Amino acid sequence: LRGKWVMEVLMGTPPPPPPPGVPTLEETDEATEGRLLTTRERMEQHRANPTCNSCHRFIDPIGLALDGYDVTGRVRIRENGMPLDTQGELYDGTPVTSPVELNAALMSRPIPLVRTFTQNLMAYALGRRVEYYDQPTVRAIVRAAEGNDYRISSFVLGIVESDAFQMQRAGATAVDAAGAH
Question: Which end of the chain is more exposed for a tag (fewer CB within 10 A), N or C?
């Protein structure tokens, strides 16, 4: 789930839904040799299926790099009594074993990350989805932010100065509603 979340929310590249009839990771939680499977072992079972492997080879290394934390964010070194194995390799061959290494790998090519951040921030500011016709504005904001070391203020300024933001139609105000009678 963590790898899928990073791909979807941070990178803006959600993986496709699983094909019908494929068990979820939760459904592969059965015991083997008297012990529960670790997350890595369940992921390896998924990757053994060629249909699943086509997506999981991208998703799993990201999730495993974050596996040193439990669902509440506490550090953990074991899962089901077994030592954690967070080693993985991204699609381009970059090894990742921790959130620090994952961050470095993602930020080595920041454009997808900052483009998705810009789209999400712009959608929030506009109160609507970012559409295809907004993409030139998104790209311009990202380019300007790059020149300012990707400071948050660069993104905010780029959005509020954009035509999309400045030309958006304001909703009816209380004064307009009162004057309409």
Answer: C
